[in-house]
Amino acid sequence: MFKTIFTTLTLFVVGMLLFFFGFNDSYKYSMEARMKYFMGDYEAARELAKKAFDIDPYNKMAFSILSQSKISAEMADYVQEADKYLQKLEVLTNKPDFTNRDKLKIKMITEIMMEKFHKLNPTVLTDKELYAECIKRYKKFKMIHEKLFQNLR
Asked: What's the domain range around 52?
């Protein structure tokens, strides 16, 4: 008797959850956002989480994914921007006629990118590999800056 009641109750609860998640657009969007987030598509995750949150502001999953995807998108942007500037720095530093103007450009680029790194706010849910890539770029900027400008302090 107990086994039958327990099985029936369990099936009812599972059915209600499937019904709720299946017909609630907010949770559909937040589940999609979660998949996009874990696939590394932070912009799409943020858009879907925003849709879910707009429908239901009490959807904690949507809020969490919205926050995390914003943080991760900022980190991905940092990596992309850092790669672009590191290429420019390589061109500047490998010129045979390295000028004071070039040195000033390098100083500005390295300081800006180091400051941007310090503004990143990883959380326990942030992709560890993505943050490690940010750290790797930061260390390159720091090394370049120290190599060229440590005597100026």
From this structure: 2-152
pTM above threshold 0.90: no
Taken in order 48, 49, 52, 53, the sign of the CA dihedral is negative
Q: How far is CA 84 from CA 13, 17, 80, 88, 89, in A?
A: 52, 47, 6, 7, 9
Per-residue pLDDT of the chain (153 residues; tens, 9 = 90+): 777 887 887 876 766 655 555 567 888 898 899 999 988 899 999 999 999 999 999 999 899 999 999 999 999 999 999 999 999 999 888 888 878 888 899 999 999 999 999 999 998 888 899 999 999 999 999 999 998 887 654
**Helix, strand, coil in percent for the chain, rounding step 5:** 85, 0, 15
Number of domains, the chain: 1
**CA-CA distances (angstroms) from residue 64 to 40, 50, 58, 121?**
15, 10, 11, 15
